[in-house]
Amino acid sequence: MVQLAAEPAEIGFPRPADRWNERRAFQDSGRCKQTRYRSPMPSDLDRFPLPAAVLFDLDGTLVDTVETRIAAWLKALDEAGLPTSREQLAPLIGLDGKRLAKEVAAIAGVPIDEARAEEIDHLSGEIYERLNRSPMPLPGVRRLVDAIEARDIRWAIATSSRKAQVATSVAALGLAAEPMIVDASHVKHAKPEPDLLLLAARELGVEPARCWYVGDSTWDMVSAVAAGMVAIGVTAGSAVDSVALIGAGAAAVIETLDELAEELDSR
After folding, report:
1. pLDDT confidence band for 154 (50 / 70 / 90)
2. What residues does 181 pair with on adjacent strands?
């Protein structure tokens, strides 16, 4: 099931600050909640030319770890004196960790500085590592990787997670070789800024406009649009629904990665 947004030519590339404000307004509207579409979605992905490269988010896109992330953040924020709810936290998953901590603190009315945000982000990562013992790959991962590599399309993982946090999840994918991984430690500004994705494209030697970015969070979509890439949302492991992903800039939304593999297999 594929849900399509506007034609590619209609998709603008607003400044990250503009997208941030739009995303906040969307979140505040109350429409950003965890649901799944249940009726067939129209059309397919063949209106997009084959990419020269495909970039992937990790948590919630390739591995089913979003609930573990949420649990880690809830515990870390509670220990930091910033208790919050799952409903408030879930739409923020995928955001750069320090920015997430600052956002929750601001909502609580107790703004924190960069150093404190770093401490909370680090604590969340430590808790996540303890909880993330048996991550499972999401449907279609290996099939899609095989389809990409069979067509000599370059690919990489671009994640806001810290390098030390990704090893267990990447190993769970069961790939023949470790893929290229660009994590938040490589850039000054992670998602929703486009820096992480632009660096990944540069490392692969591909123009951003010839890349697809596949992710499960609204922040993935905002970052991809800001980078000038085709943003593709996937809901199988997401904390938000297709409406939220399209509202954040997704050009198309799929339920599982099998749908992308089928599209590549058909060409």
Report:
1. very high
2. 157
